Amino acid sequence: VPFFGAVSYLTLAVCPFCIVSAVLWAVYRRMPYAWIGQDVLGIALIVTVIQIVRIPNLKVGSVLLGCSFLYDIFWVFISKMLFHESVMIVVARGDNTDEDGVPMLLKIPRMFDPWGGYSIIGFGDILLPGLLVAFALRYDWAARKTLQSGYFLWSMVAYGSGSSDNLRRLESHGWSRPTGSSLHRALHAWNFHITR
C-alpha cells in the first residue's frame, strides 16, 4: 500500500469498519447512546496498546504500578485540595474545554439511577494492570506453564479481586477509591507472593 508499506490482509479488511465506527461516533457523539461508540473505540485503543507495549520484566511492571498508584492518589485526591476539583476526573471526562474532547474513559449508564448517571473507569486503570497481566501470559507461554501452574490465572484473580473490591465499596458506601488503588494493591500482593 503506498505511503504505508506492507499491510496485512486482516488490516485491510478491518480498516473500513474502523473508519465507519469512528465517523459514526463523531457524527452521533451528542446522542444519549453515544457511550456505546465511545466504549468500542476506547476498548480498541486499550487492546492495541496492550498488544504493542510490552513490559520487559516483573521489576519494571512493579515499579510502573507503584508509580501509577502514587500518580492516582495525587491527581484524584490531593489535586482536589489544590485546585478545588479532581484534575484526573475532569481530564478523563473531557470537561472544561471549549472544544469537544475525547474522554479517556469507558462509561456505562447506571441502570437504576434515578438521576441517569454513568459509571466510569479510566483507561489507565485498565491499561497499566493489563500490561502486567499480559506480561504474565507471555511469561507462561515462554516457560510452557499450564494455566494452573502459571502466573496468568493468578494475575487475573488479583485483577478481578481489586475490581470487585472497588465495586463493593461503590455499592455499599456510595464512594470508591480510585480504581487503580484497588487494582494496584491486589497486583502488588500477587507480585510479592510470586517473588518470595
TrEMBL record:
GO terms for molecular function: aspartic endopeptidase activity, intramembrane cleaving. SMART domains: PSN. Keywords: Hydrolase, Membrane, Transmembrane, Transmembrane helix. One of its GO terms (biological process) is membrane protein proteolysis. The chain crosses the membrane at residues 7-27, 33-53, 60-78, 115-137. The keyword Transmembrane helix applies. InterPro entries: Peptidase_A22B_SPP, Preselin/SPP. It is a multi-pass membrane protein. Its main location: membrane. One of its GO terms (cellular component) is lysosomal membrane. Belongs to the peptidase A22B family. PANTHER family: SIGNAL PEPTIDE PEPTIDASE (PTHR12174), SIGNAL PEPTIDE PEPTIDASE-LIKE 2 (PTHR12174:SF75). This is Peptidase A22B, signal peptide peptidase. It comes from Aegilops tauschii subsp. strangulata.
